[in-house]
Amino acid sequence: MFSVSRPNTVPQSLTGTNKDYRSEEVLLTLKKMFHGKCYLCERANISDIQVEHLDPHQGDLIKKFNWNNLFYSCSRCNSIKSHTHTNILDCSIANHDISHYLILECPLTNNRDIKVTVRENSPSTQQSVNLTLMLLDECYNNTSTGIRGISRSELIKDIQRYSFQLQKIKNELLFPTEPLAQSEIDLKIEKLKAMCSPQFAYSAFWKWAITLDEDLSELVGNVF
Ligand SMILES: [Zn+2]
């Protein structure tokens, strides 16, 4: 998960008499706010878009059209979260870097699970952190139906594609085949930092891949 900043202005289609939370206005505002990524799995440029209610509305009209309750999601994560996962961390709360709470690790082979763990000394909202861990574990690893098996397979391959890019840059930095100029080292470090920005696909994975690596963390510094 990654943190976002929610515009204060409530879209007009959520006020007045004919409310519509799937209007073009709401969708385009959410797309920009979430950088076109699913707020749960962080897949980028999603086209299977769903407007997700963080607090499931279950017919409650206030929750259904509450701007602060609307999130940009892919169809896989939306169907997994459904109305069964509640008290999930809110990534749109200001000054609250949500990626710091849960460690995400991509395996080397795609028949292994994505590892989701709680960071040591996690903050006092422990229950929400644990419930979010359970949800993300399902979003990344659930293969309970034919569709989920295929979407999970594509998801992990997409994450691994970026993971290999990071490993390639790491290899070039730590084991260069010829001496690197400082400008070349700086450029590679900037590329690693760019992977950690909220705009980049699966950014929380790369923050942890750098933070948990003693060589990369020394070179790149704090990415949270
Ligand atoms: Zn998703």
Automatic annotation (TrEMBL):
Family matches, as Gene3D superfamilies: 1.10.30.50
Full protein name: HNH endonuclease
Lineage summary: Bacteria, Pseudomonadati, Pseudomonadota, Gammaproteobacteria, Moraxellales
Domain of life per record: Bacteria
